[in-house]
Specification:
Length: 203
Amino acid sequence: MSHVFNHGVEEAIRKLEDPNRRKIYDPLSLLRRSGLVTGHIIADLGCGTGFFSLPAAKIVGDHGVVYAIDEVHEMLQVLETKISEQGIQNVRTMKSNLLATTIPNQSVDFVLMACVFHDLHRETLGAELNRILKSTGTICVVDWKKIPTEHGPPVEVRLTEEDVIREINDMGFTNSEVYEAGQQHYGIVIHKSSISDNSLQDD
């Protein structure tokens, strides 16, 4: 996720913690709009400092689990401080390559990729998503529109909604739904295809 750290981790954390982010989009509303419900097990890939992970914890409740996964230790430290201060019990932080987590096979109901999909190696990502998602699993991609904005990655590295759907379909996922996630972002909900589990049946 190279562009995020062009100015260092501390600057990236400052941007992620900017309270003005909630004026751009509301994570709680987006997660509910995308189908996250009580009891779900969710993997937040590229969780950063928990902008989506903590609202997700409220939604899934005591019977759900949030795997908050990031490659940067400092990000997780900020999140872990919030978890401790707020007494949250259902968030599990995980320092990991986003494309090779230690989440058990077919154990996740919902995978969130917020503003990271455009930065990931999609061929490897497809294998990991198919591995961790249940047969009824859902993917939610929230990303920057391919338009100039004051913040965010360069326009040339952004993907259109059509780009994301095409690549997700190539991974074996179907039934995409696109919605507005604010003036600068789009949301896409994708459901796992039953045929994508075939490679795991003999594991």
